[in-house]
Amino acid sequence: MDSSDSSIQLIIDGGRHVCYKCGKSYKEKRTLKYHLKYECGVEPQFRCPQCPYRAKQKSSLKSHFALKHLNEINKQRYSAFIDGRFVCCKCGRHYKERGSLKSHQKFECGKEPQFQCPHCPFRAKKNCNLRVM
């Protein structure tokens, strides 16, 4: 048991902090504390405005909404701007800059790696990822 916080019983197993309620484990103590306070045994508080889906984390709801509903709402768009981030409607990845999203959509999203390393079987989605170390 951790003596710095007597209100929470911490079990450490293999260097990971384990929730005594549900058994989920976390690398960091603060992540376990967040889980105990906002997630474990707590009903999901973030509701999707389009369907019955509910999430325990706001970021999970944002990803769900981008993946499941934005294409239905506006089929001509390939991205959305949610909370200051550019979101790919195909996969839910988000970026701070529009250019990064456009690069992702052009070279990565839903595509097989097209660049082959001349020295080994490694393949990359971007040529710049083939740089020699």
* Principal-axes shape call: flat
Tell me the structural class. Answer: alpha+beta
How many strands appear in the DSSP assignment? 10
Biggest sheet character: 3 strands, antiparallel
State the share of residues found in helices, binned by percent.
25-40%
Oligomer category: single chain
For the biggest β-sheet, the strand order reads 1-2-3
Treating each run of at least 4 consecutive H or I residues as one helix, how many helices?
A: 4
**Straight-line N-to-C gap:** 44 Å
What does this 3D model show about the protein?
The chain contains 4 helices and 10 strands; from the N terminus they run βββαββααβββαββ. The chain has helices at 29-39, 58-68, 70-73, 98-107; strands spanning 11-13, 16-18, 25-26, 46-47, 54-55, 79-82, 85-88, 94-95, 115-116, 123-124. The radius of gyration is 20 Å and the shape is flat. The termini are far apart. Mean pLDDT is 77; it is low at 1-7.
Question: How do you describe this structure in short?
Answer:
The chain has a 3-stranded antiparallel beta sheet. A 3-stranded antiparallel beta sheet has the order 6-7-8, with helices on both faces. A two-stranded antiparallel sheet has the order 4-5. It has 4 helices and 10 strands, in the order βββαββααβββαββ. It has 133 residues and is an alpha+beta fold.
